[in-house]
Description:
The chain has 2 domains: about 25-190, no CATH class; about 195-270, Immunoglobulin-like (Sandwich), CATH 2.60.40.1220.
Amino acid sequence: MKKVLFSLVTIFFVTSLQAQNVCNSLGNLMLYTNYDGGYLNINVDANIPNLKIGIVSYAAVSVVLSGPYVSNVVAIAYAGFHGTNNTSCGSSIAATTIVGAPVGVTPTITSYPPTPLSNSFGNVSIICGYSCSTTTYQGGCNTVDQIEAYFTSYFPASVLFAHMVQYGCWTTTQNVSTGGNCCTMTVGVDETSLENTFTVAPNPFSERTTLMFAQEQNNTSITIFDLLGKEIKKLQVSGRQLILDRADIKSGIYFLRTSNENNTSVNTKIVIQ
């Protein structure tokens, strides 16, 4: 009887741990946080539409994106102290670099930006992180809720998929499908914003592309904006698919914004070659 009870407890414990790997299966924001920086190889092996990636570290980090679904990445950003990695990860990394992003996606690197969430146990700027705690002093680094609040603010209409946090150097390949180890409910995350999430394939494209929606659409409008915010074209869609023809739109980078009767919206970037 004791053995059976122990087995049941063990199964429950393991299942609970595994459940924490993914914070929201419908999410589109993957975060990687540590202190020492290092070599962060991200394998985008999960088909997550409009995937956004956020990275935080105190020391510089060398980021390489790859994988079968790397073209799903629409944005990637680093925020942290951005100090020189003084050989703590095997060799010195002078500054953060990010390579492997899809065509049209420009990575951003920001040094210690202010956090939008106040937590007395964390820094007022995005510096670094190394634990899942939000209620203990983080040694000058941030609490994970501060980091999640920063990136959900930095990437509008994003919902946390998973957050991988550790202290030491990034040394092995991180599979997106593996998820993370911290799931903090961030203030301001609205899961209904994903009800009209869509994928764009191919992207970039030259003549036409297909928008595939996660759910059935009812009188959803799609607006195309240029980089200056000027409205280029507006379409209506019902159902789960729309063929977008470039028509007379010039080559360049544009943004698609969907909105529906429930006033939810999702933005994504497209590249017309």
